[in-house]
Amino acid sequence: MDDGKRLETPSSAAGANPVSPSGARQEGDKRPLQEPRKWDATRDLPPRTVAEGSAEWDVRFDKAGLAAARAAEAAACAGGASHDITGDSTASNEETDVCGNPERSALYVVGTEQAREQLASLGLHVVVAPPDGHSEADPFTGYSGRSAVVLLEPADDRGFTDLAIERLLRCEPRLSVRVVEVRGILGAESLADWVDGFGDAAEPEQIGRNLAEQIAQLPEQRRSRQPTLREQFRPFPSELLPYPLDDFVQAHAKVMGCDASYVAVPLVTAVGAVIGNTARLRVRSNWKVPPILWAAVIGESGTQKSPAMRVVRSALDELEAQEQLRTAPAWEDYNRLLAFYEKDRRKWDKAASDGVAPPEPPTKPDERRIVVADTTIEALAVLLQENPKGLLMVQDELGAWLNSFEKYSKGSQMPQYLSFYSAERLVVDRKTGVPPTITVWAPSVSIIGGIQPGMFRRLIGQDAEDSGLLARFLLTAPPRLPKVWRDEEVDASVDWRVQQVLDGLWDIDLESDCLGRPHPREVALGEDAAQRYKQWYDRHNASGSAFVGSRAAAWAKLEEIPLRLALVLHCVKVAVGDVSEDGSEDDFVSDGTLETAIELTEWFKAETMRVYSMLSQTLADRQSEDLVGWILEQGGSVTASDVVRGRLAKRKGSAIRSANEAEMALNNLRKEGLGAWFTTTPGPGGGRPKTYFQLFDADLE
């Protein structure tokens, strides 16, 4: 300790064993400890320095014990014999220890005393794994071999394997550990059954060699952990998008240093909005799918979600700029006629002559729009009447729009917005204004917006889930990527080619029926495409039969996404002439286009379920997830002090402010099976052992 005092280990201390040459402490020895580092048995914390006089701590690490163990090991190496757990220094050439000397065999770890006796009778080195992390007698102390085998029988508690491996690696981090299921390798229900199969005539030593030979043929087993939600993210497959959308997405994502979904999702949604009411995909006579998409880009501040949306928004602004240029002369005429009308109207009001009709106001020019922001249902209905082809609602901060459901008429907007998703008729009754009733026969409203995870979690309440509002959104929440300076710029031709596609779709005239209602051109699935969708439809719904609540609602809405995406992709291909030269196939979606749409939908399915898991995480889950992500950024291993000094501990509201809190957080990861504690061995020059936490590799298969 800093004041030079030594800590006497009280005889009443739990598990206090005086030091022996193997590193354990003999009963009754009260020699002073050189390194007062203890394992907190009450809270299951790793070694840490404690105050002098503490009697409730279980001794796990002390400098005197380690020094004695290393001295014994060095002496064994110098004498040409190995120091193994059995104390048998007989040399063979099956294994070598850390000193390079032959060792008689690997160490076998079992879960019951009966299994230990069975293997010991075969001449194998075998121990029973401790039932918990705080047993007084550690069976692995002093083991210096290179390999160990944990044998798992059907009746064993599978949790004992993690504990056994952790304790083994704590003794020797370089150890190769295999986990072997007895039923899988031996074809028997238990070790006893397998041994009995040899009969009484078999030599025990031969049976032991047979078992060792079978296990030795197995590859080394590495401990793995369930991947975090961050690691489950799959990059957006931008290569599936048709030309030139793929080039646009890849180029801008590379320059901005973000995942391609930040650009692709707004772009595909915008293309669907520009198509609007000009096209429908006919599945059946009563099932006609619009190109309407709703999408939310979720990300922390500084993750490039807003710049990515602005790139797409700039292409739409170009459409509206061209429209304003086209209608500028008409607006000059309108303003001139409006001045005459207002003058005539004042004269008419003063005259108040009976029987004389008032002057007619001039007609406003027909100027199309595509982008709208936060607005009320009544104002949106007026805009839809003026733009029957459809609109795209762009919300840089989607939270304001979601919050409006509570602020405007106590949430009465929500049912009307839900009808927009399928372009169902909208009727708005007004107390003032002419006409008193606004009817929009096919309101095509696509939505794209960005939002931070915390705000999204707060605003998407039970009402939004129960109503199905959240289920209609395609979601993407890619992990934050490190920001680095990039000198590259997007070639102007990349933007120009996408602008040409949008211009072509924008110029398609909207057809109407005899009653003035929009009459979209119908596109059908080709024969092969129709068959492929039926197969996917059945498989998709079968795989989601176990979902309930919000996940079930989202899964149900996703069944139509391949059709909506297929219509968007098909219209893009028609615009660039990538369907047929003579236009004979322009009215049929090919099986290739549908297959691409299905692959994109599978990405959205996985991402949607991942985001739903993020939304359902508790605060503790989110903190663990953040901690794992930070440890991965550090290379996969950290000390408690690293965590305290790191970025996470400096965040506002962080639960980690001290070494003790860092140790508790890391130990929670250990309990979840995400990693383990290890202690480094001092080098030839001496020094203190270093205790660190190591994440296991994620099982991403």
Automatic annotation (TrEMBL):
InterPro entries: DUF3987
Biased composition, class Basic and acidic residues, residue ranges: 26-46
Pfam families: DUF3987 (PF13148)
Location of region: Disordered: 1-53
Protein name (Swiss-Prot/TrEMBL): DUF3987 domain-containing protein
